[in-house]
Amino acid sequence: MSADKKSSEPLFSKKNKKLITDPLTDNNPVTIQVLGICSALAITVQVNQAIVMSLSVLFVIIMGNWIVSLLRNLIPSRIRIIVQLLVVASLVIIVDQVLAAFLPDLSAKLSVFVGLIITNCIIMGRLEAFAMANKPWPSILDGFGNGLGYGAILILVAVFRELFGSGTLMGIPIFGNALPGEESGLYAIGYQNNNLMILPPMALIIVGIIIWVQRSRNKALIEEH
Amino acid sequence: MALNKESNGFTFGFAIVLVVVLGVILASLAEGLKPLKEKNVRVKKQIDILSAMMDVEKEGIDRSNAETEFSKYVDLSQAVILNNAGEEVARGKEAFEVDIKKEYRDKNLEEKDKKFPLFIAKDKKSNETRYIIPVVGKGLWGPIWGYICLEEDMRTIQGVSFDHKTETPGLGAEINKPFFMDRWKTSQISNDAGDFQKYEVVKDNSGSTDPSKVDGITGGTITSKGVEEMVNRSLEIYSNYFKNINSK
Fold it and tell me: Which residues have a Cβ under 8 Å from the Cβ of B110 and sit 6 or more positions away?
């Protein structure tokens, strides 16, 4: 398998590199395809959570793409969606169990959202659209790119929400001490955290702003109606 | 090999093999990680109990040393299980195993069959006895729970730790913040005669002066009221127990 790939094209050919860079920019799964929004709303209150969630999705999508791609010539087409679902569900359970065993505090905070990775359209979408029709190596790259594109937006949104909602980044205070009675830094001169930032609607607004900025910079992304 | 992968036989065979393989992988993973996960749950409970009587972060207690630290403070052989009338029904380690969240939710369990554990701890500095009471109730969106630590006189609150599952961030979710939990300190659960006195979570800022009132959280009224209900329902049972053993 690896031999025939090497003879046909290098591991990081232009085409393969595009598989990673495209989802990061002009074909981002969140801002362009508008997939995976649900989890982008739910677990972007803190950067820590967003990072763990991104890594979980990255693992599931790479492994899922790889396994489905290996099996693609065997999977009977009538049950292919169920087979993909089985693979994704199993991977998600593995992630969930490992988190519960080794990172119990984060696992409790992420609660049901790790389980809900199963319903993340990005993963099923990549399995069906890419891994079912491509060799394992490009599939791994495709999964890596899409997982990274998803994670980048997630972490970006989380940075805004945690910074302005709680005044911290990864739990470290940025604007000073906000505790009533012992304010310091910005809080001492009357600054207050924006509670709206912590609520889910704000994630939607921030994603909207990112989409707006991205499309105004690259007019080709604006759809004709 | 002429394998018709669209035939019914192959489809069934493929599905069966895949399910069996994945099932074996997941089952062995779950079984392998089980001891770790059970330990995590136990350690979390120990930290929660300790955090009612002290600042666990300041004492340097975390998941890595919780089990040894816990046994230094809390003597589980002294722990008591009460019934809902405040009478002692059992004594010993099994108090730690009582799942009060589950019993609180269980609609088929009669009130008189519910168990109420009480943990007896020792403050290492003052060598005084501490009584730690677990509580559980309902917030606005989901369950809330906590531990209340009483001083040696069995009526003054030395500290509390509350937590919640899904209360509104910035509002009801603040019940697990120090500023709210500190408001409960030094207030008393019973009067001089040992009779239980109800707590009231108030909005008029009178909580700091009146020992049976606690200031609520602005914008978190329903969660605050949930805490009030939770604390009153549980403490009434325990104050009966304390009154009885004091009068003996």
Answer: none
Structure token digits, residue A20: 């990673």
Ordered alpha helix ranges (H), chain B:
8-53, 66-73, 94-97, 100-105, 178-182, 221-247
This model of the complex carries an ipTM of: 0.75
Bridge partners, B147 (sequence order): B134, B161
Check pLDDT > 70 for residue B243.
yes
pLDDT tens digit sequence for B36-79: 988 988 898 888 888 888 887 777 788 888 888 888 888 888 88
SS3 of residue B119 by DSSP: strand
Place of tokens 């889910």: A200
Question: Which value, in Å, is the radius of gyration of the alpha carbons in chain B?
Answer: 23
What is the CB neighbour count within 10 angstroms for residue A206? Answer: 22
Return residues 73-102 of A near B (CB < 8 Å).
73-79, 82-83, 86-87, 90, 93-94, 97-98, 100-102
pLDDT at residue A178 above 90?
A: no
Kindly report the nearest CA distance between residue B10 and chain A, in angstroms: 8
Contacts 24+ apart (CB under 8 A), B36-40: B36/A101, B36/A102, B37/A97, B37/A100, B37/A101, B37/A104, B40/A100, B40/A101, B40/A104
Let me know: does A175 contact A167? Beta carbons within 8 Å: yes
Q: Provide the percentage of residues in chain B whose pLDDT is more than 90.
A: 15
* Cross-chain Cβ contact B170/A97 below 8 Å: no
Q: Rounded to a whole number, what is the distance in angstroms from the first to the last CA of chain B? A: 88
Q: Which tokens go with B139?
A: 């917030």
Tokens 């949104």 appear where?
A: A157
Q: For chain A, how far is it from start to end, CA to CA, in angstroms? A: 44
State how far the Cα of A87 lies from the Cα of A157, in Å rounded to an integer: 29
Q: CB-CB: which of B5, B40, B168 is closest to A76?
A: B5
